[in-house]
From TrEMBL:
Keyword entries, A-Z: DNA-binding, Transcription, Transcription regulation
KW Cell membrane (keyword) present: no
Chain ranges of the HTH hxlR-type domain: 19-111
Pfam (any one): HxlR
Record-linked PROSITE patterns: HTH_HXLR
Source lineage: Bacteria, Bacillati, Actinomycetota, Actinomycetes, Kitasatosporales
Superkingdom of origin: Bacteria
InterPro entries documented for this protein: HTH_HxlR, WH-like_DNA-bd_sf, WH_DNA-bd_sf
Protein name: Winged helix-turn-helix transcriptional regulator
């Protein structure tokens, strides 16, 4: 059974009312979703097969599901010759850049 695409205003994991941040976190928390977005960050427009190879290990059915969901969320689009980030997808990428910077310097305490 396919779950509906998490969107603002729609009931999602962690929010009965579909608060926008909860809808986004539910969408980005789905298996391979962030990897697909990451592989589209450079502005290239890989074909389905090329994107599948870049993601390494993703099945074609899961990739198709993620592309469908990310498309319904207006983050990714099929440009005919390949997939690319939409304007909203690009602003999301820019919004995630500080988190990537933070994660690069992340050094958890050593456990005892």
């Amino acid at each position: 059974m396919t779950r509906p695409t998490p969107l603002p205003g729609r009931r999602v994991r962690g929010s009965q009312t579909g608060r926008p941040i909860m809808a986004l976190l539910d969408l980005l928390g789905r298996r391979w979703a962030l990897r697909v977005l990451w592989e589209l960050r450079d502005g290239s427009s890989p074909t389905f097969r090329q994107l599948q190879q870049r993601c390494g290990g993703i099945s074609s059915s899961v990739l198709a599901d993620r592309l469908r969901e990310l498309g319904q969320a207006d983050l990714v689009e099929n440009a005919g010759d390949g997939y690319l980030l939409t304007e909203q997808g690009r602003t999301l990428r820019e919004s995630l850049a500080p988190l990537d910077d933070w994660a690069s310097g992340w050094q958890p305490k050593a456990s005892d």
